[in-house]
Amino acid sequence: MNSFLTFLTLLVMGLVVIVLIRGLFNMAKGGNSNTSNKLMQARVLLQALAVALIMLTLWLTGGGR
Fold first, then answer.
1. To 10 degrees, the CA torsion angle through 7, 8, 12, 13?
2. Cβ atoms < 10 Å from Cβ of 52
3. Is 38:61 a contact under the CB 8 Å cutoff?
4. How many angstroms separate the CA atoms of 54 and 46, rounded?
5. 16: closest CA among 46, 45, 39, 38?
6. pTM of whole model > 0.85?
7. Which is deepest, 9, 18, 25, 35, by most CB within 10 Å?
8. DSSP letter (8 states) at residue 37
9. Cα atoms in the Cβ-side hemisphere of radius 13 Å centred on 22
10. In 10 A of CB 28, how many CB atoms?
11. What phi and psi, each to the nearest 5 degrees, are found at residue 32?
């Protein structure tokens, strides 16, 4: 269970990086502002999910104690 949560957390964190980079490239090339907004919303949602998974993993493993 712990290795699954660790893998899932790393996967979500990787998705955050991908969405962030796509948003930066879209902004740099002067892309559609609607697309930038959707990417920002997706990034915030993924970051919240990543933080929740990190907290859950720490709670289940005893916080590294």
1. -30
2. 12
3. no
4. 12
5. 46
6. no
7. 9
8. H
9. 16
10. 8
11. -65, 130
